[in-house]
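Components:
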Amino acid sequence: MSEFVDGIKTRFWNMSHPLLVLVVIGVLVRFLIMPFAYIYDSDYWALVVRNIDVGAGLYEMYGYFYTPVWGYVLGLMNAIDNMFLDLGFYAVVIPDAMILEGSGHQLTATVTSPAFNYFTKIPLVFVDTLTAYFTYLLVMEHTGDRKRSIIAFGLAYLCPVVLGSAGIIGMPDSISAMFMMLTLLLVFKERMFLAGMCFSMSILTKFFPIFMGLALLVYIFKKYTEKGEAFKQMLMAFAGVLITAILIFLPQIIDGNLMECFHFLTDRVDGAGGPTSPLDTFINNSRVICYIFIAIAILFVTRQHIRSTETDLEKDLMKYALITITLSLMYPPTTQYIVTLVPLLAYYVTAIDHRFMLCWKVLAVGSAITVLVTTTTMVLPVAEWWGLMDVNGLLELFKAENTGANGITFWNIHYVVGGALQYLGVGLIFVMMYLPLIRTLRERKARTGKTD
Amino acid sequence: MKIDRLAITAVVLCAIVFIGEYTTYYTEPDDREIDAAWNGNNVTLTLKSTGSDWYTAVLFDNNGSVPPERLYIYTDPDYDRFYSEACSISGDRAFPSYADQKSFAEEIALSLKVRGFRDVSTVDDEGLADILKETVESPSKLGLLVSSFSLPSTVYSGGSDDLLMKWIRNGGSLYWAGSEIGKIYKDSDGLHKVDGNQTLFFGKDGVLNTSYERPTEYVSTEVVDNMLFKALALRCGNTKFGLNINGMDGIQAGFVQNGHATVSIVSIGKGSICIVGGINNMEQRDDLCQTIASGITGKTVVESISNGDVTRKTVERTIPVSCDDPYLYVYFGGIFVTQGKVMHDERVR
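Structure:
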């Protein structure tokens, strides 16, 4: 036995491929944290799987608010469960945990089982691994430096943003990021139809990558300078986008409930109702207003991209992809939204400007703090189903965290600090990107002033 | 990675999503069967599933009280037009929980169908009046679900001799969710407030929970101690508008706060009123559907609960029966019900 264990140890430490070591570490960390859950979200995934299981698809019954791709992944997992697995009951209600529903936070007393949590997150482990590998490939293609590429893999794969989103929260943003990076690879390899397909998959999982659409178009028009070639490539890409979108939305088109797929754009929370205050109205509309400003800003960035004199078009596209995705996160994002930014940032740090590592670090710390806000509730599945912790003890801790006057509680402070750091990390990318430009403009203005 | 491999990777990843789409929409749901044979002092349960499933079987005694077998859902055509006014009339502590009438009715009908309760229709103002008039003499086995804050004056205007009140007394089952029962009625002049509505329905005032302003204050951690919480996998902890049945002939289930429960059923004449507390959310709707589909009434007493695995197999289980009016409600999936069926031993015991 001892020889066997020693053998494994020796083989592990002597592994020659560093990527494999990173994969092993990443998978181990993910399997350790996957039984935990954002119980509010995992409760909804259980509902979605139930709806699919009874033949109601994604939108016939209440519970699914996104475009269909993630729902289809859950549908596939449900089929695998029915064919090969036995997950038991997906969730239980813990009566004492009703204090969570009375806390005013988005929490529930319905706690999904660790088995169910693994079940929904295992596809995301593969997805994260592929995303990091695509980042590795892009850096390798553009720098030819294996060491940098491996670092890029690590930054994309082990970033707390990604670990928290896929490993704990169980959100499909990782799928969006994977298809986005694959889109970029395919565009560089001149596989426009497939690139269009993957771009479609990406934006039909989570919409953020749509903001880099103009950057892709600018790249195509700069890259293909022969007469009509750019239009040909663009049409191929559009065909890929369109055909994929039609195939993805086919069940909803047939059922006549296509608009249900875009429920996330409006309201998705049912509940108390009642009179609406002006503050509520402002908060509800602020997102729309913010995205209008973001759209305008992206037009300016596109103008800058068109005028760019950078000769390395690939790197230029990666730069503007990063800028546009960063802009899309200017409305204060939750941790999972930042997932699409991480592989682009990992690329930028390793292939273009290592100083942006500061942004990665701030994002890493901010997201880790934010994800850990819900520690007392995220471990409830393990406490309730495996008995590894005392449920009442955790709920007492939750109460203590949420005790305070005028909303000044440890929980809220923790959340604000984490959220602010996350936002700082996103904003810092923008500042660091445009600081040299601002300096240049100032200097030019100063020189012009002197001449005058 | 060579270019071809990259293309293959892209095709495979897209194909995986399309396979998921196929399994989500174009494969038949698992074959599930629930059946029971009543044999004297036992009931033999036969369960079958071709998928991954766990079952819960609840044996209960209705003590001669008959649950509804057909349900009408009232969809108020004026709901959105009058919602703000209804909030003003009801006040800060009792404003109704918003429930889009069409989607609420569709959701309930589908959720009931999953649970084996298929005879569901929706009625508007005119349809409601017609149905109540047609069935008022013998409304036994009929249920009416209201999620609106008001009823048309053709059936209810705050009087004890209103059509609705007669219908209930003669044996109809009224289910009410999301607002204070009977507080408002409407006619061509608009909405009208009814004073003494709680006394009219329950014989006394102050029995519905409207104590707090914020919905979260109504959330309770205390469970009604009668096995129904576990039996029906109830999950709504919000007791807003919940009924305190102290001194009434009825039962409670789910969560309770100062005597106000999330599910309360009281017998009124030959009929019953069921109040499902809380705000319009999936937890409330699930509890409402479990209450209706299970066939529990104001006289229900749970005798036993059993559960187990029925994954890709047929299971036969014998449950002892010692009550006189036994019903057996079996459902798959626990909280997330995938199939249900209620069965009754029709023989006089």
